[in-house]
Design brief:
Blueprint: E1 7-8, H1 11-23, E2 28-33, H2 39-51, E3 54-59, H3 79-88, E4 93-95, H4 99-102, H5 114-117, H6 128-143, E5 147-151, H7 155-167, E6 173-177, H8 197-203, H9 205-218, H10 224-234, E7 240-248, E8 261-270, E9 273-282
Parallel strand pairs: 1-4, 2-3, 2-5, 3-4, 5-6
Antiparallel strand pairs: 7-8, 8-9
């Protein structure tokens, strides 16, 4: 039987491990997660394995990125299962800190990237990206990786973290990997487990609706409003649409006319699950 995946609990343990590895000339790839692992984050671990000498995954359900009324308390947690699948994906070590370790009494400092955090999910989840940027900044200082791996499903998050890395001159390379999907196109997410069988069937329509908009852009449609309307029409009957946006993929600004890289993004409540997805297309 293979040995269990090593777990480090304190920031000092994690930093000491990382510095020993780097002192030995070994590169480190890092995948931050909130656990409840599925093929999405595991694909990031596997890519990190191919591109680095050592791989670290963190498991931490970050309280400061959840708004009041969101699912922090009910967010799925299964450390034993996560540990097993990380080991099978050839992760070297898991960093699993306690909340008090990362946010001790009196903690006040936050990292904010206001422009990129404002649209899309930022309109509906106040403080979310401030919480994301703060925890990722802390984890990068604790792990000191060479490469950080994120998925494109959380497109806005990836842009926020990329901007933070550049603005703060953090010595890490961000690698954004394609969204991992089910056979019917549904983006993999820990929140998919909230879906009933009927919800699950309808949820696959989110990606189909975005792809319908993307095809219209490729055919030459340059009006953001008309593309939004097309996607919204395609989402009818799937769930409660929180937003559909068509923005410049580089900075999330709203162009009058589509040209260059464009992101089509949507957030839809299907049953009790809030699902996000996106498509990037060249206008």
């Amino acid at each position: 039987m293979p040995a269990a995946l090593p777990i480090l609990r304190s920031a000092k343990q994690m930093l000491d491990w990382s510095r020993r590895e780097r002192a030995a000339g070994r590169s480190i790839g890092f995948v931050p997660t909130m656990g409840a692992l599925h093929r999405g984050p595991l694909s990031l671990v596997q890519r990190a394995r191919r591109e680095n000498d050592r791989v670290v995954a963190s498991i931490f359900v970050n309280p400061i990125q959840f708004a009041p009324g969101e699912d922090f308390e009910s967010y799925p947690r299964d450390l034993a299962a996560d540990r097993a699948v990380l080991r099978a994906s050839r992760c070297d070590v898991a960093f699993v800190p306690a909340r008090a370790s990362l946010f001790p009494h009196g903690f006040q400092t936050v990292v904010t990237v206001p422009g990129l955090s404002a649209p899309l999910c930022g309109r509906f989840r106040p403080g979310h990206f401030e919480g994301v940027a703060t925890i990722v900044a802390k984890l990068l200082h604790i792990v000191e990786p060479d490469r950080l791996y994120l998925g494109q499903k959380d497109y806005q998050q990836s842009l926020v973290i990329s901007r933070m890395i550049r603005d703060l001159d953090l010595p890490v390379r961000l690698v954004t990997a394609p969204t991992v999907r089910e056979e019917d196109g549904l983006a993999m997410s820990s929140r998919n487990r909230y879906l009933s069988p009927e919800d699950r069937r309808r949820a696959a329509g989110i990606q189909r609706a975005l792809q319908a908009g993307a095809r219209a852009v490729r055919r030459g449609l340059t009006s953001p409003a008309r593309v939004r309307a097309l996607v919204r029409a395609a989402l009818k009957g799937i769930g409660r649409v929180q937003y559909v946006e068509v923005l410049d993929a580089r900075d999330l600004t709203a162009p009058r006319r589509l040209q260059g890289p464009t992101v089509l993004a949507a957030a839809v409540f299907v049953g009790r699950a809030r699902l996000i997805d996106n498509v990037v297309v060249k206008a």
